[in-house]
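User: Protein folding is very new to me. Would you mind checking the protein record under this note? It all follows right here:
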Amino acid sequence: MNRPRGTTVATASAVVLATAGSLLTAATPASAAVTCASPVFTRTFYANTTFTGTPKGTDCDSVIDQNWGTGAPGYKGMPANNFGVRWSMTRDFGSGGPFAFTASSRDGIRVYVDGVRKVDVWKNVATTVSKTVNLTIPSGRHSLRVDFVNWTGAANVKFAYTPRTTATVDKVKPLVPAGTTVAYSTATTSTKVSWAANKEMDFAGYRVYRRLKGAVYPTKPLATTTATSWTDTTVPKDGNVYYYEVRAYDKAGNTSSGTADLGITTVDRIAPAAPKGVEDNWAMGSPTKITLYWDSNTEPDLAEYRVYRSTSRPVALTPANRLASTGGGYSGPLPQTGDVYYYVVTAVDTHGNESPASGTAMYYSDDLTGPVETPLGTRVTEGETGVTVTWDASGGTSSDFAGWSVFRALKPRASGITVWEVAQGLKGTTTFVDNTVKPGTTYYYWVVAKDWEGNPGHSSADLPVTVAGNTTSPAAIEGVTTVPKENGVTVSWKASGDPSLDHYRVLRGAFADGQWNWTPVGDRTNERPWLTGTTWHDVTPADGEQVRYAVVGVDQYGNQLTPDTGATVTGVTELDLRPTAPPATGSPFTWIHPNGPRDFNLYLEDTTNENGSEATGFNVRRWNPATGTFDLLGTGEISYPMSWHDADQPKATTLFYRFTVVYADGTESGATELAGAIA
């Protein structure tokens, strides 16, 4: 059939083929060698329809799908009519199976498998003719050849071969994956399974299976993948042998047989189970020895049990707390420290894997153990402040350390001697000063650490010292000042720098019978056994009296100055808060005695007045300086004992009270007046 051509032969020979056939390489003259990697076709052009003579060109083509129209193929010397093109290649079809060969052309096309014609549409036609042939390809490598001829007119050709993947048609299993290997990493405890790519054209994926030695592969795969390797990160770390196999499956659901078993041996990192029954152990009271029992573990690789003990809960599984290793059961002493002791047990296998801790057994102990603190390098010296005992603390520490005790005796330690614990509970210091010693006496000292239960630790050796003593008083106190106040006199002074000073004493002087008489009024405080500060308030009624004060320093031997031997003396006139009312007279009370600042005890011997009227009660009045009168506080009953309590006293002042008796005839006796200073 003769038709006009859109492309001349001369023009076509200069064009690189770029049709729907996905040309892989430019057309090459027949004289040049062309190698095309399977499954790419080698395409050869002939200037005749008999495929004879020298080809006009050869190239590679991955898909047969060309349309040259009415022109000639792009090789020099190719005609627009009466030419032929041949595609050929050899490829691996894997396990083979059912395929569909689809061909369409204008003009003739023939398809051969291993040289056997399978498709034959070989005639000069005016329109494109198509044909599909279903056939089964055996497994392995096979050759394909496609011959196309154009006699006259337009030229186009298309050919494809695809597996038929419906389950009703395809019953052929894929080939078993080849080249399977396994590699186990002890560092990551994972297994990498690798294999070669499957040759199936209807390949869908791979399934990886794992089984324990002696068991069968499960129905469900461990993993599904399309890659050619897979890493198992879930393989148990139990020291057992595990086998792997890989199976290929196709799009129709057919699955290959498994690869040969490939085994690995895992590292054992699985610990035994925690022993049971330890928590059921106990004992009455505070035992000195304990025994533990527990149920035996069943792991075949069990090596031993470990016993741990601690005074805190939960018990930490540390080397410091590990008490013993045993094949089963434990018995041992219980430390007598007063602590609660907790015990747990673990199981250990032959690979060193240790179980979690068991339940906890608990035991109470009595504290019969002294602290570990020990006095070292103990020494004793006498100085201005007395006898000083000094020691060095050891490095050990006890949780129940209560402090250091210092003991003193008049003889070396022996049975039956009298011992004084002159200091106890000393913490944060390693020095003690004994200021109660007497000159001319020999003392023996030693130091011991004690715990809260009174248990002693290691004692120092006896340290003898003969006290020389002295008779020198501390120097006179300087800067003594006095300030009169409504409730007495405040005395202040400068701190003494004399090293022999132990404490201060305040003396109050009153003039009587032609001389000053001195009375100690301050040598201790409520907080301390001795006065060590530099101020003292003498609580005394502010009644305008002229008095003197002296402050002296006292050393540990009692040496002190007096107002007659150099003590500093300061005079002061008290404030005068006495009532301006006429003096109190004519009281019938035998005596009225202050019993503290608020309470008074009263005694009335004669209970009738001169008229013979009986006493029925008494009145108590308190001076009110604002009004200049004695205000009535209240009335008490005549009883034995008889007392009065002032519940609303003002503070920091001097109060003046008057007590009178009330009689049945309505008369009131004269008054007894008392003054009291209120702190």
